[in-house]
Amino acid sequence: MAQYIRDVMTPNPVLLSATSTLVEAAMAMRDFDVGAVIVLDDGQVYGIATDRDIVVRAIANGNYPATTKLGEVCSRKLATVAPSDTIDVAVRLMRDRAIRRLPVVENGQPVGIVSIGDLSSEQEPYSPLADISNAPPNR
Question: Which of 56-60, 73-77, 127-131 has the lowest average pLDDT?
Answer without folding.
Answer: 127-131
